[in-house]
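Margin note from the TA: students keep mixing up input and output lines. Inputs are the sequences; the output is the structure of the whole complex. Example:
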Amino acid sequence: MMFGLSLAAASLVIFVMIELVPGDPAAFMLGINAAPDTLAALRAELGLDANPAVRYVRWVSGMLIGDFGVSYTYQVPVAELVSARLVVSLPLAVMALLLSILIAIPAGMFAAARRGQAADVGIMGVTQLGIAIPNFWFAMLLVMVFAIHLRWVSAGGFPGWEAGVIEGVKALLLPAVALAVQQASILARVVRSALLDTLTQDYIRTARARGLSRRQVLVRHAFRNAMIPVLTILGLQFSFLIAGAVIIENVFFLPGLGRLVFQGITQRDLIVVESVVMLLVFAVIMVNFMVDIAYAIIDPRLRRR
Amino acid sequence: MIRSNVMSVFALAACLNMSAALAAQTSITVGMQLEPPNLDPTGGAAAAIDEVVYANIFEGLTRYQADGSVVPALAREWTISDDGLVYTFALHDGVTFHDGSSMDANDVKFSLDRARAEDSTNAQKRLFTGISMVEAVDPLTVRITLSNPDGSFITSLAWGDAVIVAPETIDTATTAPVGTGPFTFSRWVQGDRVELARNPSYWGTPVALERATFKFISDPTAAFAAMMAGDIDAFPGYPAPETLPQFEADPRFRVIVGSTEGETILSTNNKSDKLSDIRIRKALAHAIDRQAIIDGAMFGYGTPIGTHFAPHHPDYVDLTGQSAYDPQKARDLLKEAGVENLSLSLKLPPPSYARRGGEIIAAQLREVGIETEIANLEWAQWLEQVFRGKDFDLTIVSHTEPMDIGIYANPDYYFQYDSAEFQATIAELKLASDPSDRSRLLQAAQQRIADDFVNGYLFQLARTGVANARIQGLWENAPTQANDLTGVSWTD
């Protein structure tokens, strides 16, 4: 119920916001030499001459039966465009997130275990740097080293999964690293502070008193309880990575979802923008839902709520 | 023994590498900054469409060549009646579309009738409005009757918007174009690339390349990296001119600097209260240092112009002296016009010539006491506010259509120049077919708009490209928006 209401509210907000943006898709497509009657003909062809209420109902009722409409500029179904972009964006987001987890959790735990020591200070310093470095700049650095000088990978682009999984992963590796650095830095700091919070709890002292080693306490008791804030951040990061990678997609000229939205906005391909934003809203709600389920798995006390 | 085995393995591997390298010489990857929204050149204005399909996939009755001249293409030859109204075209025999069907006079009639139809969405419909009738006389003969003589009709037919398409396949041309050209469309990975393959049954001279890929890279830094890493073989409209010296110094690459049909102008709203006085427009013209803009905004690439006409055209008149940089004169003119504290809006579209050029112009205008308020607009906003709404004082834009001085004859055009004398000149030009008459009229038109200081004339946009040094046959200049690959090949 809440789910449906959120989506309905989101659809209305998206539609109104995007319709308010000035700029006519037909004028954009036909350029500056187009005659007024040509413009009118194209507007009619695109269905832009109907009034906004009619177009809103048309859009929403189409989406309910899985029809996201046809892109004005590309003139192919939006669903087709989006799925072609998702096969790039989704694996990229997953790779970046996995990398980020692989780096952040050990680093965060290590820093928490050695609180105040050189290792802790060192890791926190590096993560501070990781957050501060703009990811597009880091991405360019990666391209210079690995594509231009060493020639290990190409400077960007995506060959498509039909070229083989290895080729695909290779093309996404540098972008994933560029995205992961910032995310991992944030995550490592969250892991560390969450662990430090739980380490001061009474049950940790009890566990220690029962004779568990520092290490056992950290992994078995503290980490599990520290997972709640970590999961929250992970959920936010994943939602961000699906469409927020637009700058990295630009640097590596990847055909991802972020660039599709960006291009849709500049070309006033309103139907694409509306549908993709709607899809993202849906994805964010789904991710939050899954994070909620994960909370309950980790902390049985939350199940009763 | 083992060692020699190892050696021979290396030698073999080297051979295999060599042959792979040699075999790769028939394919090319061309970089483009903008992706075409679709691949139907008869249904959209985007230059990127023609940059993929023109001369490669689609052909018209006539076509542009690299030097800007127009030559026969699908039409073998033509005759023009004495009154200049009836054009009879003889078509090449044996021309087929990529789907195997033959191209004949009915396809020509269909294409031209479609372009000029009531519900046509052709972006250059004006090119065809002079046609009163198209007849298929026999399968290889087409007769076109015009309502008025039109000296540039043969040139109009060379535009990408005038290519010949088939009625059976035009509905899917946006995503799967079927033409008569030397390349066939293979596939389009949206957001990434378009792939073409050699047309084995091409009617004309077959092309040297077997495969061609257009790859879309919008970010200038990414374009630089892709060129340097060898992912792209040629980038004709290279978007990062500041890095060209690096390519010039590298023997692997060749830098190609050519001209375009783009007159870059400081468009001036002639009906704005502040700018309707010619003395003020004249003051603006003298306040602008063109060379400083070319150096500062375009890294030195570009040719100063003094009127709205391409300097490489034989009829060009150099009128830059008439609006030479003279800030003192500009101040005097403003004083004479009695204006003080003039403040103008300067609305800039996204290209770097406009954004960077705009800042330099703002500084130059401040020198003579004119304040500007800069607003950066997206293209869609620019079209709405400036081009359609005429809500602006100044803007910077490059008019890239070839031979477009005729726009000054339309008083409703966004800069709103209304001169009966100029309109009469253009009307006369439309009817003139004698080359010396046309030449005289074109020169008079250039002089008129320069005398009236309609707009600030800045520079002819250069086309800066980078290519692998072993590629030959790329166009240097851009007489029309195209990446014609028909003459492109690799040397050893």
